[in-house]
Each structure stands twice: as C-alpha cells, then as structure tokens.
Structure to design on (189 residues):
C-alpha cells in the first residue's frame, strides 16, 4: 500500500489543532472587550474644582454652579462619583464606626486627589509667604544702607529722569532721609 505524503501532512496538521487554543482565543477576546469597555467608561468622566459659598474647595465630576468662585477643570479622568465635604458634620455627636460606610475605590481616589490638591495649595501659600518675607528683609536692608549713606557727610549723587547726574541738595537729602525712614518703619518690623 502506497502512502501519499501530502495526505499525511494534512492529517498531522488537523490533529495538532488543540481545543485549548480555541478556549484561549475566546478568553483573549473577552478580556480585550472588557478592557476596552472599562476604558471607554472612564474616558468620559471629567473632574471640576471650585470653592463653594462657605469657602470650601469642592472637587466633583459635575460642572460647578454658575455662582461658584475659582472654577477650573482638572482634566483628570476619573469614574463618576459624588463628593461631600472634606470634614464630616458632627451635629449628632461623634460618629461611630457603624455610621460611616466604607468608601468605594472611586471615592478614595477623589479624597486622595483632594488631599494632594490641598497639600499643593498649602505648599504654594508657604512659598509665597517665604518669598514675601525675603523681599521684606531685602527692602529693609536696602533702606538701612541708604539711611546710613544719607546720614553721612559724603556727597550723594542722584540721576535725573533725563539721564543727567547731579549732587543732592541738603533739602533733597532731608526729603530722601524722611522717605527712607518711612520705608524702614514699614519693612523692618
């Protein structure tokens, strides 16, 4: 009996098809469909931040009311969630663990982002205060140096608006001393 090598090849190819391959392909298709649907759901969410009437910062996925101050879009894509105030109201006394419901992952994420935003705002405020304090110290130091120079007997020259330089008269020197004294009173506290 003669064997045809071509028919043997087809038999080997058909028998090597594994049923596990088909199951794996189906699982892969289901996983890809699930991943794409989850990404589409989160891609539609938009986050907004504003200050409410009491001055508290509110972060939400709903657009702020027209009366809100300091409105801005954070542009962070998050799942839809409703946020409350950062501090729980304690009208009925302290809360017990039974009264507080566990937060969902979305609520925890929103609270985390809110804490991050508050920390950034606090750091920016501290940085601005430090810069203002440094500027005040620098102004005080310059005013003290100018005051010492104006009190000395050394002639002081002054540039005019047209670019010419002239020596200060005693009247101009007294006026500049008074102006410098006022600056020192404000800046050197």
């Amino acid at each position: 009996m003669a064997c045809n090598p071509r028919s043997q090849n087809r038999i080997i190819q058909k028998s090597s098809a594994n049923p596990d391959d088909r199951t794996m392909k189906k699982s892969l298709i289901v996983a890809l469909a699930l991943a794409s649907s989850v990404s589409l759901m989160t891609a539609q969410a938009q986050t907004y931040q504003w200050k409410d009437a009491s001055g508290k910062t509110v972060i939400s996925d709903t657009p702020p009311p027209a009366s809100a101050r300091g409105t801005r879009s954070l542009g962070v894509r998050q799942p839809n969630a409703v946020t409350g105030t950062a501090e729980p109201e304690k009208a009925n006394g302290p809360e017990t663990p039974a009264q507080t419901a566990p937060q969902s992952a979305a609520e925890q994420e929103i609270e985390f982002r809110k804490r991050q935003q508050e920390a950034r705002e606090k750091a920016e405020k501290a940085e601005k205060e430090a810069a203002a304090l440094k500027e005040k110290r620098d102004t005080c130091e310059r005013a003290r140096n100018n005051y010492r120079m104006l009190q000395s007997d050394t002639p002081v020259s002054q540039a005019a608006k047209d670019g010419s330089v002239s020596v200060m008269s005693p009247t101009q020197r007294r006026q500049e001393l008074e102006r410098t004294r006022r600056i020192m009173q404000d800046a050197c506290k």
User: Anything to note?
Assistant: The chain has four helices and five strands. The mean pLDDT is 78. The two ends are 114 Å apart (CA to CA). The CA atoms of residues 145 and 180 lie 10 Å apart.
